[in-house]
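Support reply, case 0932

Customer input (verbatim):
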Amino acid sequence: KPVSLWKEARFTLVRRYEGHPRWIIEAYLLTNVSEGPMVLDEREFLTEGVAAVGLEQTILAPGEAATVRIVREAK
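Our regenerated output:
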């Protein structure tokens, strides 16, 4: 499921884990669709209800993709 993030990135929800009573884990594929390198920081993904962010890598070359995992509070 595509998710709007930045115009330089394609951000797609790949999997959602909902088996824990307190946490939901989402796995996204982030693809750099710009013509330059993209530098990522976990803090860019922190919003209300987000407990943790895991980046597979922090620098993406043009056309490169990486997994982003986000842990959210279950409501």
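We compared this against your earlier run and they match. Two observations from our side: The chain has no helices and seven strands. The chain has a mean pLDDT of 92. Please reopen the case if you see a mismatch on your end.
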